[in-house]
Design goal:
Layout (H helix, E strand, L loop, with lengths): L5 E4 L11 H10 L12 E4 L14 H12 L3 H8 L3 H8 L10 H8 L10 H12 L3 H7 L7
Antiparallel strand pairs: 1-2
Helix pairs in contact: 3-4
């Protein structure tokens, strides 16, 4: 038996008093919530390989998260618990619909084991990368360095 098989027990329709096909169709339509009309008394198993939507070379943060989760064979609920967020938050990150806040980036980097963001080349990019890896917001860094952000 295949692991990912979805099996259901199929129930036969009751015999009608009149025995006519029209009457049987009427009973199927009116009693559709009580019976499933397939093969009588057979166990039906649907099986197949679940498609993987994990890229070999991830480009976005969501693709990095999804790839790491698939490699570890974790559920989204388990990864969300490890990161300290709601499962729906993780789903938003993996689908690239939402972006994590700066304070979540250190946990994400620890989970992935590497920094998924682009490599910094200039001094400004290195400062931004370090600030992000530490989970420090721009305003807090400016306040710490006694620099006004708007200047």
């Amino acid at each position: 038996m295949v692991e990912n098989a979805a099996c259901i027990n199929v129930v036969a329709l009751p015999k009608t008093d009149s025995g006519s096909p029209r009457r049987a169709q009427y009973e199927i339509a009116t009693h559709s919530q009580r019976f499933i009309a397939f093969l009588p008394y057979k166990k039906l198993c649907l099986s197949g390989v679940k498609p993987q939507h994990v890229p070999l070379e991830p480009k976005t943060l969501g693709e990095h998260l999804r790839k790491r989760r698939w490699e570890g064979k974790w559920l989204q609920k388990e990864v969300a618990l490890r990161l300290g967020v709601n499962q729906w938050t993780l789903i938003g990150w993996e689908s690239d619909r939402t972006v994590p806040s700066v304070r979540m980036v250190p946990k994400i980097i620890a989970f992935l084991g590497y920094d998924p963001f682009s490599k910094a080349v200039t001094l400004g990019e290195r400062i931004v990368a370090k600030r992000r890896s530490l989970g420090i917001a721009r305003k807090r860094l400016a306040w710490t360095c006694l620099v006004y952000e708007n200047l």
